Amino acid sequence: MSYHVPVLLKESIEGLAIKPNGTYLDLTYGGGGHSGEILKKLEEKGRLIAFDQDSAAQANIIKDKRFQYIHGNFRFFGNFLRYYNISHVDGILADLGVSGFQFDFSGRGFSFRKDEKLDMRMNTGTRSTAEEILNNYDSENLTRIFGQYGDIHKPDRLTNNIIRFREKKRIRTTRELKEIVGRIKPSINANKYLAKIFQSLRIEVNKEKEALIEMLNQIPDILNRNGRLVIISYHSLEDRIVKNFIRNHPTPKAMADGCQNCNNESNKDCLTRFKSNLIPVNKKVIVPSADEIRKNNRARSAKMRIAEKVIR
CA-to-CA distance for 95 and 101, rounded, in angstroms? Predict the structure, then answer.
């Protein structure tokens, strides 16, 4: 069983511009595909530290004296580095996608193609699940997550169906959620519509937007001069946050919230908290080739952005 097929593998390793004796971070270890390729580029004094919040990833740990695995959410990577007395690194890689293992074998309800419990936690040690969100969130918050995280057309219609269903019966499984959606899903692109709903719930369960923003805010101080950042995202919300962070526009939080007036000093959320000192390496977003998509259909929505730290 393959845990996960790494996306944009060659392009991401090239994007890191690896120094043989440098120190690197893989913030989304998963099956270790990207980490394995990074280690091939490192010499004896090189170092790779990998993070993953899913305990299932620990079964794939690479045995190598240059490698260190940390079980934890990447939003806390700065704390871990300080604990291990690491002040700066030469490159950071993050693949923000859900692994093939999580979709196909975890049993946590990430995929609408199976009948499973509505869990969707990346880290099973956390409390909130998709089931709890569907049964406990009020109408306003359900509509918010489907609209913001899934770009669902008329999300209030979906919310109303969910509330009517749960008044009679608690929503517990992916099959029941599909039954609710089945009454309003479009006849064309029905699977895409379902995927957006499941994506919305997963983002909310795991607080993915907040985690991404917190992670990005730490990067300018951690990267060495000429260090590289490589991030692979899979939906427009993530990509927009990453793009504007790299371009050194207002803070990731302000951009995620759609703020357009970030020069207003009275609005502290709209002020740039730092000069990121990052410049984009690729002028256009990098996407998988047709051949890669043919071999791995889950790569089809991937977008990769690369940045390099400069001193301004």
Answer: 15
Residues recorded for the chain: 312
pTM of the full structure: 0.87
Q: Which amino acid is at 215?
A: M
Architecture of the domain made up of 9-96+209-309:
3-Layer(aba) Sandwich (3.40)
What is the C-alpha end-to-end distance of the chain, expressed in Å? Answer: 47
Which two three-digit tokens encode residue 40?
């091939």
Strand order through the sheet with 278-280: 67-71, 47-52, 23-26, 89-95, 223-233, 303-309, 278-280
| The Cα angle at residue 106 between residues 203 and 126, in degrees rounded to 5 | 50
Q: In angstroms, rounded to a whole number, what is the distance separating the alpha carbons of residues 294 and 252?
A: 33
Q: Is the dihedral of CA 227, 18, 28, 62 positive or negative?
A: negative
pLDDT tens for residues 249-264? 444 454 455 544 444 4
- Output the six-digit token pair for 269: 């959320």
The CATH class given to the 102-205 domain equals mainly alpha
| Residues 55, 33 contacting (CB under 8 angstroms) | no
- Kindly state the helix (H) or strand (E) to which residue 95 belongs, with its residue range: strand 89-95
The tens digit of pLDDT for each residue in 50-66 reads 999 988 889 889 999 99
Nearest to 215 by CA among 26, 3, 23, 47: 26
Neighbours of 243 (CB within 10 A): 18
